[in-house]
Amino acid sequence: MNRRRLLVWLGWGSVGAWLSGIASLLTGCAPKSGEDAEGFARFVNLAVLDESGFILQDFFAKDPVIVVRDPADKNVIHAVNALCTHQQCLVNWQQDKAVFVCPCHGSTFAPDGKYLQGPAKAALQTFPTKIHEDDVWVKAD
């Protein structure tokens, strides 16, 4: 390869790198695919949630997320990080008791993620929710 060809090759390479950097800046400002302008993403249809009582999605956020209706107010939807704050075990939703229970050490949490009892000392992380056109939307990091 001669010097001229090398310089042309390096020039086009730098233009390509510059353009890909500009493209990533522009797409970083737009909502992610499936998100609305406020950053909420569709999680589940209300009919599916009501049929099963809860929905767990492993790949919705960086950690698994569980969505449940509040047993005291069916108009309220809670979304929580499904990992126990004690040792990161996956919590289970016990609909008959209306609590999240950690199977590893028995910590329990209210539907809104608040700590109730057990070795965990912190609440489950919560995420904002909204209902739009019969779907539950969640805003997760």
From TrEMBL:
<dbReference type="InterPro" id="IPR014349">
    <property type="entry name" value="Rieske_Fe-S_prot"/>
</dbReference>
<keyword id="KW-0001">2Fe-2S</keyword>
<dbReference type="GO" id="GO:0051537">
    <property type="term" value="F:2 iron, 2 sulfur cluster binding"/>
</dbReference>
<dbReference type="InterPro" id="IPR005805">
    <property type="entry name" value="Rieske_Fe-S_prot_C"/>
</dbReference>
<dbReference type="Pfam" id="PF00355">
    <property type="entry name" value="Rieske"/>
</dbReference>
<keyword id="KW-1015">Disulfide bond</keyword>
<dbReference type="InterPro" id="IPR017941">
    <property type="entry name" value="Rieske_2Fe-2S"/>
</dbReference>
<feature type="domain" description="Rieske">
    <location>
        <begin position="46"/>
        <end position="138"/>
    </location>
</feature>
<dbReference type="GO" id="GO:0004497">
    <property type="term" value="F:monooxygenase activity"/>
</dbReference>
<keyword id="KW-0408">Iron</keyword>
<dbReference type="InterPro" id="IPR036922">
    <property type="entry name" value="Rieske_2Fe-2S_sf"/>
</dbReference>
<keyword id="KW-0479">Metal-binding</keyword>
<protein>
    <submittedName>
        <fullName>Ubiquinol-cytochrome c reductase iron-sulfur subunit</fullName>
    </submittedName>
</protein>
<keyword id="KW-0411">Iron-sulfur</keyword>
<dbReference type="GO" id="GO:0016020">
    <property type="term" value="C:membrane"/>
</dbReference>
<dbReference type="GO" id="GO:0046872">
    <property type="term" value="F:metal ion binding"/>
</dbReference>
<dbReference type="GO" id="GO:0016705">
    <property type="term" value="F:oxidoreductase activity, acting on paired donors, with incorporation or reduction of molecular oxygen"/>
</dbReference>
